């Protein structure tokens, strides 16, 4: 399947029907688990009243962590390069012990002091406006291309339905903007139930039906292996990792795991939880999504067996569903992916709005802003953030969003020392952490730029070369510089953490 798809009225009708359902749910969400009467408090609008229990948190965090772009991009990468595309699996296994160990402590500190963002926590711990601003600005910068990529996922679905022009995408995001403005975090939390159930149905059906239709999993892997054998040796691809891919695979997984819950949208789900125990339970339950992700990745191999020839790798999954499934089920699958863009995009815009409101507006523009004023600023900022992401997709080449997202992971990883270290010990000082952040952020960005905005960098040690994730290199430099600077600062006592 190549080129633009023909308009499929059955698939389109099913997709619009489910989209209408979640739109109604989005506007109705303002009355769901209602706290204060008018959401005139950032805790209510931006964190859902900090009252989400185990199951709501599970769906919300899963819904904004496993995004529409994940459903599109992971199979696309597996289709294009094979085994290395599975790095997302160990990454989403390693991340949950990190969540179990760190996030309950972070939630406890934030809850005790009324903090809404990671930058709030940093300022509360160190009293440093400079370090707070660095964490806030990094979060905003890393989130914007992430929102844009959700639009990329929706664009792929709209194209697969046979729709042309930008109006469908604009309409979908206008609706998203309105019900997010009205209901805040409650809207994506409620819609996440529908989104995740639909995705589970689609993936379980696909991994059972498609191999059956193609002659079984042995035929799927055989066809994929033959397709990779015909590819050029560089970059390496195949059903199993080659020796040269071990270091890239492992460091991408580890670096991504450390960065994952530093993003504003994932931390928003954490701060919205009702207790530290809720977070611990979710760290145990969320690996169910890792199983789902592994099944989603297999769709990349199935596309080879089905003889799919997508115009771009991102078209792989839609082309596979249009080819092998009846129109009504393809419409259901496309609706699941499109709704899978709305949930994370909403949470991301709310997380970015919380950061701007608390750590830029309140810190520098209007320190005396009321709770109602904070909520209003956050609502308007969420509209601006979504509008900016939409304009970016409409007027900038998609590759820019992809490149910036690769940098986004590198950038947000540099906030890990400032956010996490102060939760466990008092050794680091704010100026040292700020210097470490600057070295990691600027140095990592420079390396990535010199490598053509690629996530991997080759280093030579003792005559041997190793290709590793540049974000991990940058955060190691970050911590090393911070530690050395801290030794010089400790005698002065400058920037010492406050007593929790």
How would you describe what is shown here?
By secondary structure, this protein is an all-alpha fold. The protein has a single domain, classed as Sodium/glucose cotransporter, CATH 1.20.1730.10. The chain has helices at 9-28, 42-47, 54-65, 68-81, 88-113, 118-126, 129-160, 167-183, 186-214, 217-229, 246-260, 264-271, 276-285, 287-305, 316-324, 327-365, 371-395, 398-413, 416-424, 430-450, 470-489, and strands at residues 456-461, 464-469. Strands 1-2 form a two-stranded antiparallel sheet. Helix 3 crosses helix 9 (186-214), helix 4 (68-81) crosses helix 7 and helix 8 (167-183) runs antiparallel to helix 17. It is globular and about 70 Å long. The mean pLDDT is 88.
Characterize the largest beta sheet: strand count, sense, and whether it forms a barrel: 2 strands, antiparallel
Total domains, how many?
A: 1
The run of helices and strands is HHHHHHHHHHHHHHHHHHHHEEH
- The whole-angstrom Rg is 22 Å
* CATH architectural arrangement: Up-down Bundle
CATH homologous superfamily assignment: Sodium/glucose cotransporter
**Residue-averaged pLDDT:** 88
Number of helices: 21
The SS-based structural class is mainly alpha
> Remind me, CATH topology?
Sodium/glucose cotransporter
Number of strands: 2
Strand content: under 5%
Query: What is the 3D form?
Result: globular
């Amino acid at each position: 399947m190549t080129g633009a798809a023909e308009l499929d009225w059955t698939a389109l009708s099913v997709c619009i029907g489910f989209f209408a359902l979640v739109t109604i749910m989005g506007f109705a969400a303002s009355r769901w688990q209602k706290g204060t009467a008018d959401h005139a408090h950032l805790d209510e609008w931006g964190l859902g009243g900090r009252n989400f229990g185990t199951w709501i948190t599970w769906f919300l965090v899963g819904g904004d962590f496993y995004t529409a772009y994940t459903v599109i991009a992971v199979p696309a990468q597996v289709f294009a390069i094979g085994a290395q595309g599975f790095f997302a699996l160990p990454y989403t296994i390693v991340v949950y012990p990190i969540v179990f160990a760190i996030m309950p402590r972070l939630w406890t500190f934030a809850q005790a002091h009324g903090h809404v963002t990671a930058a709030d926590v940093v300022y509360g711990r160190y009293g440093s406006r400079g370090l707070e601003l660095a964490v806030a600005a990094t979060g905003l910068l890393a989130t914007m291309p992430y929102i844009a990529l959700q639009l990329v996922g929706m664009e792929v679905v709209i194209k697969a339905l046979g729709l042309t022009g930008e109006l469908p995408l604009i309409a979908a995001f206008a609706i998203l903007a309105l019900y997010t403005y009205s209901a805040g975090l409650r809207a994506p939390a409620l819609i996440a139930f529908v989104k995740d159930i639909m995705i589970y149905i689609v993936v379980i059906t696909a991994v059972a039906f498609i191999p059956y239709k193609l002659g079984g999993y042995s035929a799927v892997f055989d066809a994929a292996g033959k397709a990779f054998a015909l590819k050029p040796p560089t970059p390496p691809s195949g059903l199993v990792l080659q020796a040269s891919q071990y270091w890239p695979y492992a460091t991408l997984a580890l670096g991504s795991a450390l960065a994952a819950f530093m993003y504003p949208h994932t931390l928003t789900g954490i701060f919205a939880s009702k207790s530290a125990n809720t977070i611990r339970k979710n760290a145990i339950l969320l690996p169910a999504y890792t199983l789902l992700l592994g099944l989603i990745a297999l769709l990349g191999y199935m596309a080879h067996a089905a003889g799919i020839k997508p115009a771009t790798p991102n078209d792989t999954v839609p082309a596979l569903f249009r080819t092998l499934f009846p129109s009504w089920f393809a419409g259901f699958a496309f609706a699941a992916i499109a709704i899978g863009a709305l949930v994370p995009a909403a949470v991301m815009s709310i997380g970015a709005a919380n950061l701007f409101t608390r750590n830029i507006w309140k810190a520098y523009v209007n320190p005396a802003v009321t709770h109602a004023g904070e909520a209003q600023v956050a609502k308007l900022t969420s509209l601006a953030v979504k509008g900016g992401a939409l304009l970016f997709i409409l007027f900038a080449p998609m590759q820019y969003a992809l490149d910036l997202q690769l940098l986004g992971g590198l950038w947000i990883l540099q906030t890990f020392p400032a956010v996490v270290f102060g939760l466990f010990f008092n050794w680091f000082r704010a100026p040292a952490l700020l210097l470490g952040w600057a070295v990691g952020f600027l140095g990592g960005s420079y390396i990535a730029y010199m490598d053509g905005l690629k996530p991997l960098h080759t280093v030579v040690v003792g005559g041997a070369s190793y290709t590793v994730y540049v974000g991990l290199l940058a955060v190691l430099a970050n911590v090393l510089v911070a530690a050395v600077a801290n030794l010089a600062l400790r005698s002065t006592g400058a920037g010492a953490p406050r007593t929790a």
